[in-house]
Structures are given as C-alpha cells and as structure tokens.
C-alpha cells in the first residue's frame, strides 16, 4: 500500500475496517483463489467486487512488454474502479499473488448496496474515482489513439476522451489522420477523417 507524505492512506487503496467488511459480507460470498489465479481479466466484463480477507492480490498493467505489477492489495483492501458501476470490461489484470480468500460481491448486489449504505457507498465511490483518475494519468485504457502531434483532429479526439474520463494512451506518429484502436473485446480500428 502506498502512503502519502503526510502519513495518510493513498485514496486509491483504503483499508476497510471490520465493521465495514461485516456489512459487506451479507451481500457476497467467500471464495478462495490459488496463487497465480486470475480474478479480473482486462478483456472480460467486471462482474464482482472482491474484498481481500486473507492473502495478497496484485494488479497488473498489460503492455507490449508483458505484465507489470502496479498495485499490491493487502487484507481489508478491495478491487474495482468505475467500470464496476458501468459493467464494462476491466482495464487491468488482477491475480492472487499467494493463496487468498476474498469476499466476492456481484455487481448488482454492489449497485443495491450503494443505494442503501451511504457510508460504504461513499468510500467505494471515492476509491473508484481515484483509481480511474490514476488510470487516466498513467494512460491505461481500452482505447489507444494513434495520430500526429501536428494534427488538430488527434488533439480534439484526445481532449474528448480525456473529458469523458476514458483512459487513452496515445502514440504520436508522423501521419495526418488519427487512428483509434479499441483494445480488449473490441476488434476494430477506426480512421477519423474530417
């Protein structure tokens, strides 16, 4: 877990207390994962929020060079970001770094919980937003924008995607027309012409 310089917990990785975990237990079920097992895959819809009870989970950014660990979750921490609410596919891979048990809460149960438990809902939403903003800053996303750094169209598209909080890695090339590559479950690329 990362800490800020003032000693406060990183808002992307808060620890739930025993009372919060007890309130979440009524909405989920305990599951076990062996070391190396995948809980969340970037190409699959996010169906569960996982609260780590025992063990350790790692979040991986997937890139051309393979997997890179960018986060480690300890007991009391949970998975998820804004895609948990929209039902879209994950943006990162999450694996059990060692034998782990988690509280698995289905997406629909989580959505109901957000409506009925304001304290937990607020804690989860603040974390989801902080994580999405970090993904945007790191350029981790489901869309890759490739275009010229001299093209107004490239910057217009990138600005649109950024305003809509879609993490958008980009590659500036010497080409006139920007291209958008959809990663994950999408299989098409699109050329944008004025």
What do you see in this structure?
- This protein has 194 residues and is α+β, with helices and mostly antiparallel strands.
- The protein folds into two domains: 18-138, Jelly Rolls; 143-191, no CATH class.
- The strands form three sheets. It has a four-stranded antiparallel β-sheet with strand order 2-6-4-5, with no helix packed on it. Strands 9-8-10-11 form a four-stranded mixed β-sheet, covered by helices on one side.
- The longest helix has 21 residues, at 118-138.
- Helix content is 28%, strand content 29%.
Topology summary:
Elements: H1 18-25, E1 29-33, E2 38-40, E3 48-54, E4 57-63, E5 66-73, H2 83-86, E6 93-96, E7 100-106, H3 107-116, H4 118-138, E8 143-147, H5 152-163, E9 170-172, E10 179-182, E11 189-191
Helix pairs in contact: 3-4
Q: How would you name the CATH homologous superfamily of the largest domain?
A: Jelly Rolls
Number of H- or I-type helical stretches: 5
Q: What's the CATH class label of the largest domain?
A: Mainly Beta
- Low-confidence runs: 1-8, 171-175, 180-194
User: In the residues, how many domains can be counted?
Assistant: 2
Arrangement of strands in the largest sheet:
2-6-4-5
Chain-averaged pLDDT: 80
C-alpha end-to-end distance: 46 Å
CATH topology of the largest domain: Jelly Rolls
Number of extended strands: 11
Oligomer: single chain
Task: Report the C-alpha radius of gyration, rounded.
Answer: 18 Å
SSE succession: HEEEEEHEEHHEHEEE
């Amino acid at each position: 877990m990362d800490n800020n310089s003032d000693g406060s917990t990183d808002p992307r990785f808060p620890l739930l207390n025993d009372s919060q975990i007890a309130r979440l237990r009524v909405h989920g079920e305990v599951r076990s994962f062996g070391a190396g097992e995948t809980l969340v895959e970037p190409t699959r819809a996010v169906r569960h929020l996982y609260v780590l009870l025992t063990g350790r989970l790692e979040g991986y950014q997937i890139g051309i060079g393979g997997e890179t660990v960018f986060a480690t979750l300890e007991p009391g921490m949970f998975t998820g970001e804004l895609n948990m609410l929209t039902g879209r596919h994950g943006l990162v891979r999450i694996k059990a770094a060692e034998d782990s048990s988690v509280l698995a809460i289905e997406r629909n149960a989580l959505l109901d919980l957000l409506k009925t438990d304001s304290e937990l809902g607020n804690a989860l939403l603040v974390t989801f937003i902080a994580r999405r903003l970090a993904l945007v800053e790191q350029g981790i996303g489901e869309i890759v924008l490739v275009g010229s750094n001299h093209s107004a169209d490239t910057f217009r598209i990138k600005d649109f995607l950024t305003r809509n909080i879609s993490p958008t890695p980009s590659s500036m090339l010497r080409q006139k027309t920007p291209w958008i590559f959809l990663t994950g479950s999408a299989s098409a690329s699109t050329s944008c012409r004025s």
